[in-house]
Amino acid sequence: MKEINLNPIIARVMDGDNDAFQELYCVTKDDAYRLIVYLASNKQDASDIMSEVYLELYRVIRRYDHNQSFSSWLNGIIIRQVRNWKRKGWRRLRLQDRVKQYCMEDAHYDLDNHLYNLYAKEIVLPAVEQLSHKLKEVIVLRYARDCSIEEIAMILNIPVGTVKSRHHLALKQLRSHMDKQAGKKGATTYVH
Q1: Top-ranked range on mean pLDDT: pick from 61-70, 90-99, 180-189
Q2: pTM (2 decimals)?
Q3: Are 9 and 20 in contact (CB under 8 A)?
């Protein structure tokens, strides 16, 4: 999420301005939805989880500290709501299917993006999907959301060392999986 100064909107929300909450929703919904889709069980669940995220945001917005990055704070709410949803027993849908759907929705990408998406769909995303949920959270936040290790620690409410450990283990598992896939195709692939 591009960090913009949302503090004036948030202040209005805290003062009970429902139009301001609608404005906050409009500014943040696309990025929130993308993260939910990366982490949620399936695309149909994403809309329901999105509703849960914004209900929770409305409920806890008064706890927001203006000295903190709003996008990181909202990412934390999203992570918790996705976890809550998963605890309710909803089945998982592979990340590959979601990427395929996004590619079909966006017909205006260039050849390089198309080739990258094919590579990601065939090699990277199936490897990410095989990670445990804890490792997948770190990888998605780090590479899909471009969060720092420190931001991830704050979002997941875990020590920085734990994030580093999960990140290292996830990359190791991704390399192993991708090397096996590349071996089947006769090439070596590396995750950096």
Answers
A1: 61-70
A2: 0.55
A3: yes
The sign one gets for the Cα dihedral 76, 80, 83, 85 is negative
List of domains in the chain:
7-87 (1.10.1740.10), 95-185 (1.10.10.10)
Kindly tell me if the per-residue pLDDT of 107 is higher than 50: no
Report how far apart, in Å, the C-alpha atoms of 102 and of each of 60, 98, 105, 160, 167 are.
31, 6, 5, 32, 26
| CB of 117 closer than 8 Å to CB of 109 | yes
Sign of CA dihedral 126, 178, 172, 176: positive
Quick one: average pLDDT of 124-140? 83
b vs e for 74-103, b when ≥16 Cβ sit within 10 Å of the residue's Cβ?
bbbbbbbbbeebbeeeeeebebbebbeeeb
| Cβ pair 36, 102 in contact under 8 A | no
